[in-house]
Amino acid sequence: MKILFPSLFTPFSDLTAAFTTRHGGISKAPYENANLAFHVGDNPEDVVKNHDLLATKLDYDRYSLIHMRQIHSDKIVRVDHTLTFNTPPECDALITNRPNTPLMVMSADCTGILIYDPIQKAIGAVHAGRAGALNSILPKTIQAMYQTFGSKSENLYIVLGPSIGGCCYEINEAIAAECDEKGYSLALRREDEKVFLDVNTILLEQLKSLKITHIEVSDHCTACRKDEYFSYRGDAQHTGRIAGVIILR
Ligand SMILES: [Zn+2]
Hints:
By secondary structure, the chain is α+β, with helices and mostly antiparallel strands. It has 5 helices and 13 strands. A 6-stranded mixed β-sheet has the order 3-4-7-6-8-12. A 4-stranded antiparallel β-sheet has the order 1-2-13-5, with no helix packed on it. It starts with a strand and ends with a strand. Bound molecules: zinc ion (ZN). Residues 165, 167-168, 221, 223-224 line the site of zinc ion.
């Protein structure tokens, strides 16, 4: 399994965090080949095998990994002992302070976000596409980490994984108007008759307003780099999912 380790997290010995690519798994087209999502139409046995390959690579027990049934919401779930690999909650953010409990966010164009608080020893995984970003899923997750674990925003380390960029994400005028209304005009780019949205610009504005400075952003656009990632828009919607994984040791 080919994975990427964000350099922002490398100083921390009690943490493992990575993003997958589309390489190193066993799924067949159009999920070739490291798809990690069960809901996209891929052979479930292949998906489980891909999860096993990732678990071996990152050295965790696959059954202890918690993923999500993502619904583009602002719902956040605190992971406790009642959740298992086979019972993913319906939500778009997971938080925990439990060691050896990997949290996973899946994506194909949306931004997968990994959060680490080295002071309170807590982690989070967030799924933010356009809807989630405009519904403030990221600031709400940071608020939930404060309320639940006492995590102060200025202590957080946050990585935004590979996602579709403002180069490729074309939106309609209704969505552009919503971005304008919510104060995110700077995330829009107009070219000829078209309008494009950079979701990461919204997310970074939200982090800036929370005075968060420890941030790393992947500079890879998933639609530009279909050779390396899955892209829902770039691959005409029939595709797999990469993932961000974060584990407190
Ligand atoms: Zn692009």
